[in-house]
């Protein structure tokens, strides 16, 4: 099954199943647990369903709101796209038109009906939303055929449709428009849970299984408690002493829970690279020789080994593009660790040494920023590591207000999606505002190309242009694990989404 774009990496939990055959709620499974406690690894900056752009938000959104489809990573690591609000769908006109038939029984928590008009409005609003527009950029128009049927006409075939729409929340647009501020803190959604308590200061929330859930399989968990724990060491301790039931861990923290008989580790498929962004729109980083020097100053293998503790992907490149499932073409020249060459390039830049490049934001939780700082210092480049609160850092990245930044990125299934995410002009995940007319022209060609050989040739051409700009450096793709207490059954995470069941 084709994969959709990923967002910034964190734990998301989906505790729901199926579509309804009638309005009577199914019985709670025998032996169901009353409650579980989940860990969010970052604070939630925004409760607006329009702005579902961080996976930290999804802990609430995937349980309180519904989407057209669910995307599930099964235990065998296969991907399943299954019904949610849409009970079925089909294509017309050689895949350019997607027709979805909504479940007639789908209702919001206040009993009002979910309609095709709501679906149309929610998608149309996302088409102009900078946080989520990349998910719907392929949509040309949307037609409501009747109360329960909506058709999407695509401007071009997109390999991840409909999977990439699993993060487009469908909400009651009438109530939202009447009082947005109240709605986002007291949402009226069509998901299986309602938000019953929220403490933004403490970073906690509670979601409760609702009586009018319309699905034919009732979730096994009655109450979902969420705690925000941003410190990795604290998170590990909370898992070990039973305060937390489920969390997502990467890197060195995995070593701390290995062998714990009370915990289960299940590997996920991670397609989200960890990257160093170089903003060429700021001084002195607008100097091409300086950016090139940075590219050769870094020992990529050492950073991956240190930050991932042996759990790094084996197919990492130095270019932000490749994923564990996708290789960089052999014809593309990659960077390497060459400090002598880096020093020479610093000299060739013509800038007074040591060159001060300002702040490095992000990457402080695993020490990668400090390592980058040391490598740069060794070749005559000064940088200050600065730690910002998550929301502030996200805004700095989204607005391009930084020089050097370390963050996760958005992976994709196809070559076109990956290039578009990172290097397409004005794309929402192109944080360092990379813009190149030749690359944009190649993307235009790739958009309408289905021939594999032609796609590979265009990819090689684009990546060689990108390499020469020295703006995005891949620091590794850490293996990600869902860690949970025995007694639960948790499939591996796919793009931050899991389903929790009770054994």
Short descriptors:
15 helices, 503 residues, Dipeptide-binding Protein, domain 3, D-Maltodextrin-Binding Protein, domain 2, disordered C terminus, five-stranded mixed beta sheet
Structure explained in plain terms:
27% of the residues lie in helices and 22% in strands. By secondary structure, it is of the alpha+beta class. It has two domains: 35-247 and 480-495, Periplasmic binding protein-like II (D-Maltodextrin-Binding Protein, domain 2, 3-Layer(aba) Sandwich); 274-476, Dipeptide-binding Protein, Domain 3 (Dipeptide-binding Protein, domain 3), CATH 3.10.105. The strands form six sheets. The protein has a five-stranded mixed sheet with strand order 15-14-16-13-17. A four-stranded mixed sheet has the order 1-10-9-8, with helices on one face. A four-stranded antiparallel sheet has the order 4-5-7-6, with helices on one face. Helix 8 (288-297) packs antiparallel against helix 10 (339-348) and helix 14 (437-447) packs antiparallel against helix 15. The protein starts with 34 loop residues before the first strand and ends with a strand.
């Amino acid at each position: 099954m084709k994969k959709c774009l990923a967002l910034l990496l964190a734990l998301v939990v989906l505790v729901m199943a199926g579509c309804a055959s009638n309005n009577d709620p199914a019985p709670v499974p025998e032996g169901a647990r009353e409650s579980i406690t989940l860990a969010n690894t970052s604070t939630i900056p925004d409760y607006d369903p329009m702005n579902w752009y961080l996976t930290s938000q999804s802990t609430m959104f995937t349980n309180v709101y519904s989407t057209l489809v669910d995307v599930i990573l099964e235990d065998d690591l296969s991907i399943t796209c299954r019904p949610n609000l849409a009970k079925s769908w089909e294509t017309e006109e050689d895949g350019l038109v997607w027709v979805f038939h909504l479940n007639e029984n789908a209702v919001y928590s206040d009993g009002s009906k979910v309609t095709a008009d709501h679906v149309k409005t929610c998608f149309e609003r996302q088409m102009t939303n900078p946080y989520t527009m990349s998910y719907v950029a392929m949509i040309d128009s949307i037609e409501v055929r009747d109360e329960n049927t909506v058709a999407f006409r695509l401007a071009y075939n997109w390999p991840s449709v409909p999977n990439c729409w699993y993060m487009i929340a469908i909400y009651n647009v009438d109530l939202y428009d009447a009082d947005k501020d109240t709605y986002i803190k007291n949402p009226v959604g069509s998901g299986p849970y309602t938000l019953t308590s929220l403490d933004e200061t403490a970073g906690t929330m509670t979601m409760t299984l609702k009586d009018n859930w319309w699905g034919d399989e009732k979730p096994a968990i009655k109450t979902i408690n969420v705690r925000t724990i941003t410190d990795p060491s604290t998170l590990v301790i909370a898992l070990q002493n039973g305060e937390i039931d489920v969390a997502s861990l990467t890197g060195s923290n995995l070593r701390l829970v290995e062998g714990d008989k009370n915990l289960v580790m299940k590997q996920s498929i991670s397609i989200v690279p960890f990257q160093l962004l170089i903003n060429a729109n700021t001084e002195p980083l607008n100097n091409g020789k300086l950016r090139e020097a940075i590219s050769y100053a870094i020992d990529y293998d050492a950073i991956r080994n240190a930050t991932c503790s042996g759990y790094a992907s084996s197919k990492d490149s130095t270019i932000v593009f490749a994923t564990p499932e996708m290789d960089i073409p052999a014809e593309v020249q990659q960077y390497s660790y060459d400090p002598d060459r880096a020093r020479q390039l610093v000299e060739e830049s013509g800038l007074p040494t040591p060159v001060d490049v300002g702040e490095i934001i992000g990457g402080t939780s695993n020490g990668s920023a400090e390592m980058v700082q040391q490598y740069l210092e060794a070749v005559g480049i000064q940088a200050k590591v600065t730690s910002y609160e998550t929301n502030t850092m996200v805004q700095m990245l989204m607005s391009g207000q930084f020089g050097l930044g370390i963050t996760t990125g958005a992976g994709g299934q196809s070559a076109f999606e990956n290039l578009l995410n990172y290097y397409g002009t004005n794309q929402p995940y192109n944080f360092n505002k990379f813009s190149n007319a030749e690359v944009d022209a190649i993307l235009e060609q790739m958009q309408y190309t289905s021939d594999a050989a032609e796609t590979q040739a265009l990819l090689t051409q684009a990546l060689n242009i990108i390499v020469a700009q020295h703006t995005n450096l891949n620091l590794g793709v850490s293996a990600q694990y869902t860690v949970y207490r025995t007694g639960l059954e948790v499939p591996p995470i796919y793009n931050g989404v899991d389903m929790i069941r009770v054994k």
